[in-house]
Write a structure and sequence with these properties.
Tail_sheath_C
Length: 483
Amino acid sequence: MPANFLHGVETINIDQGGKPIRVVKSAVIGIVGTAPIFQAAAGDRTVNKPVLILNDVAAAQYFGSEKTTGYTIPKALKAAFKKGAATVVVVNVLDPAVHKSSVVAETVALGADRTVTLAHPGVATVVVKDQTGTTTYVDGTDYTLDAAAGTITGMGATLVAGVQLTVDYDYADPTKVVAADIIGTVDGSGNRTGLQALLDCYSLFGFKAKIIIAPAYSTQNSIATEMVALANKVKGMAYIDAPIGTTVQQAIEGRGPSGTINFQTSSPRAMLCYPAVTVYDAASDSTELQPFSQFLAGIRAWRDNENGYWWSSSNTQIDGIVGIERPLTAEINDPSSEVNALNEVGITTIFNSFGTGFRVWGNRTAAWPSETGANVFECVLRTGDVIGDSIEYSMLQHIDGPLNNALIDAIVESGRSFLRKLIADGAILDGNCWYDPADNPASELALGHVTFRYDYMPPTPAERITFKRTLNLDYLKNLGGNQ
């Protein structure tokens, strides 16, 4: 009611009742790695800054071509988009001003078109001299430089076809990126770097990166550990690759105390990916090995968008690969097959049998076999994450309202309405939300603290199908029945 005098009519809005709960985004991939940002326009170059990428055009605009060797982000983006549209947040850690190497007196000869390509792209501080090293040529007068491509084109009458030159220069060198760069920190200016920069996603874009990959770098145990820690913070999943060259035995042993690879974790936030995949490389017109995780991340995001986050990504065809690092025995009715042995210890692998193509094979997180509850299934855990985040974020509109029966009823109805919608979608089998007076003593309510409960059950994946058969002699009685 107004505090001032009123001689007339007024309307007071009463805001009560349940409010819709908005489902949070789950199909968001977070990629941390290196990119040839020197290929991007000056205003599009970023270092340790989350960049939202929604398609392959934006991928090339901000992070260059996958044909440039030695960089992880362009190929990871291409793999992630193979299955279809996805939302990707990318953090490039390579800074050409920091991660660089120097070349002294590289000897080159101008070709017939008076152009020569240096041994490395992404060059800076270029000094071009004659073959003896006594005459220094001037950019823009004697030659033109394409720093991104690393090409020098002669100008005027001096630098003609066949002229020998010596060139000193620095070049962006992704091999100079170390684990600390990928892991990241908070710098002196208060900016997050590396993996830590993904923590800025929500404030920047209104959603979090839920599928975290660091292709080629997650094989390092220090980086894999930090990926899991980040996944715990954002309630996401870290997709971790085994090192290239790992055998099946080493992958399985890697789950134990004598293992020598980065698979010694029981985190429910880790998905262990093995083996590497074979992909056609247009730059070399040949095949190369690439991390499985970047394809699995794209499939997980596609499955979320296509069917729902409660669906498993297992038994989904992998697009864009021509093979796998090593053949694995795979039969759906053979418990001694290699793919089954890998699944049995919590490793997600690739199924390839007659007529099947290459398929993701495995539902369980690294928590298996240490844990045996339904949450060891990735899709079950992620369903809980989506439900939890959606309910929590929707409570902003209720926080600091008067703690009375109307507020309690509104929150309970919001939760129940949301769970009914999930039941209708098939995301959960059943669920309920309620207020329990036993959880809410007067002492807590007096402090402004109110507690609600909800439960739910997602469908588990039909990972194992069993038939029981019987030899029924009674069917012999039908013999001769038509004579």
